[in-house]
Amino acid sequence: MQWTSFLGCHPEKVRRAVRALVAQGLAVEEAPADGIHRIGRVCRIKARRVYRALGAGEFFRRRRITSRDVLMRRLLALDHVLERPRLPWLPTEAEKVAAFEALGIERRVLPRRTYRGAAGNIRRYFHLGLPLALDAERAIFVHVDPGYETATALRAWGAAHHDLWTMLRDRGHGIEVVAVTRTWEASRRARTVLGNWARDPRPSELDAGIRREIDRIEHVLRHGDAREIEEVCGTIQGGLVRLSALRKHARRQTGRGLFNRVATWRTKRLRRRLF
User: Fold this and answer.
1) Which residue, 208, 218, 242, 261, is the most exposed by fewest CB within 10 angstroms?
2) CA-closest candidate to residue 194, choices 167, 149, 157
3) From CA 140, how far away is CA 87, in angstroms rounded?
4) Measured between alpha carbons, how far is residue 247 from residues 214, 225, 234, 243, 251 in Å?
5) φ, ψ dihedrals at 90, nearest 5°
6) How far apart are CA 263 and CA 253, in angstroms?
């Protein structure tokens, strides 16, 4: 690829780096996917040991460009990440899964796809490989539109992430969603979808554990005998205090929107490079 304008590097330095990789048999230069024009040639790292040295072995299986949508999606994702180098991006599937498990979020709520093959079924999490950043306070999810004609892919991506977003929100994490696009039309579609998500008036489902505790305390205070009240609440006053705290938490939880921020971001580098 012509990394010269894309990365802002000196053209000759880029050419020397590419020639060195090719000369050592670590990379090859090839034409981009069919239908993509005016982006030069693609430099593809093919040596497994390079991926291993970078601690990114999972990317070895993604080294081949399978379609123009895949190539453009990866370019747009890289373009967006390069604009925000200081964010705590999680580049690999393993890092993403481990980060959410560290927050106590089970794999069952993570977006995933099962691939079926002769060797058996393989389950991949965050299978599109889209940018995701996470720190102690917020999570940033990025969707990339390589040139779709509808917002169907964005809606499906949101549906696949909804359970994860809900659990993050209930744990106090801020959630930001960014839609990366190439064209004005795609940006307009994405803004409509994200705007609907942000304005969704439906309250979140109250945590089942909190709901059960509220119901139990209310039942005991209304119908329980002294022994049951002591067992559940300690004292009537203690039960009332606990009940008040739980109700306040429930109001905060159900009154809070799912997202702290939704936004679209339109590329400048790849805007004129059409299919």
Assistant:
1) 208
2) 157
3) 9
4) 8, 23, 19, 6, 6
5) -110, 100
6) 23
Residues contacting 127, CB < 8 A, separation 6+:
93, 111, 112, 113
- For the record, the structure tokens of 131 come out as 């940018």
Is residue 155 within 8 Å of 193, Cβ to Cβ?
yes
| Each residue's pLDDT tens digit, 226-253 | 788 888 888 888 888 888 888 777 656 6
Rounded distance between C-alpha atoms, residue 69 and residue 55, angstroms: 26
Q: Please, are residues 182 and 270 in contact by the beta-carbon 8 Å criterion?
A: yes
d(CA 211, CA 246): 9
Cβ-contact 176, 139 below 8 angstroms: yes
Q: Any idea where the domains of the chain sit in the sequence?
A: 1-66, 87-204+256-275, 208-254
pLDDT in tens, 144-172: 999 999 999 999 999 999 999 988 988 88
Q: Which of 263, 262, 267, 261 is nearest to 181 (CA)?
A: 267
What's 102-151 look like in SS3?
HCCCCHHHCCEEEEEECCEEEEEECCCCCCEEECCCEEEEEEECCCCCCC
- Pairing type for strands 120-125 and 132-134 reads unpaired
Classified as helix, coil or strand, 27 is strand
Residue 155's identity, in one-letter code, is R
For residues 132 and 126, what is the distance between their CA atoms, to the nearest angstrom? 9
Q: How many CB atoms lie within 10 A of CB 181?
A: 25
